[in-house]
Amino acid sequence: MICLIFSRAIIANEDIRSSTSGSNLWWNDFWGTPMGTGNSHGSYRPITVLTYRLNYRFSGLKATPYHATNVALHGLATGLVLSVARTVTCRRGALLSAALFAVHPVHADAVASVVGRADVLSCVFFLLSFLCYGRHVRARDGHRAHHGQQQQGPGSRRPQPCCAKSGAGRPATAYLVFCVLFALLSMLSKENGISVMAVCIGYELMLRLRSIKKWNKVSGKQNDAL
């Protein structure tokens, strides 16, 4: 069954085997069929097809390099899971999470099957997008904290929550741009990659609620002191 899928996704796909510039890659579906036609399967994954094209350029139809690429991408995804987990838990918990991700049987089909690369590649860009958003949040809040300290003094205003309007600075903006870019690459690797934007929005809402609760607690203590 895997050999049949491999032949259909690689051998019969002209977007991968063609010696031309490959512009049709951006107009065809995952199987090399023009989008919008009756024969199209509706799976638009040009970034994944592009990686197959690179494999084909260097190794032709030898299966080993295709599988090796999948394993390398899974290793990269495992490292990114470790980085993401490290931001929300202790080092031991992050190592345990990454180890579980690396060996969990649910990933066997995505890594072992050549066509499963769409899942692995989308996961890599998904995690990169979320990591960039986390860096954006830290750079933005760090800029706001520094800006607030400069304004502190006798009779200064009460501390503002992190959702108060303030300039985010160039580093924070750059991280946000990369976040959107990686989200787009994740979606172009497999359609469900766009869900990273919902994850980022949920993360932002969680941080804002936490910041508002903290600010209300500090304000309540100040009022009690007065």
UniProtKB/TrEMBL annotation:
GO cellular component term of the entry, any: endoplasmic reticulum membrane
Biased composition (Low complexity): 148-161
Coiled coil: none
Classification via InterPro entries: TMTC_O-mannosyltransferase
Disordered as annotated region, ranges: 143-164
UniProt-recorded Gene Ontology molecular function terms: mannosyltransferase activity
GO BP: protein O-linked glycosylation via mannose
Name of the protein in its database record: Uncharacterized protein
Species in which this protein is naturally found: Aphis glycines (Soybean aphid)
Organism lineage string: Eukaryota, Metazoa, Ecdysozoa, Arthropoda, Hexapoda
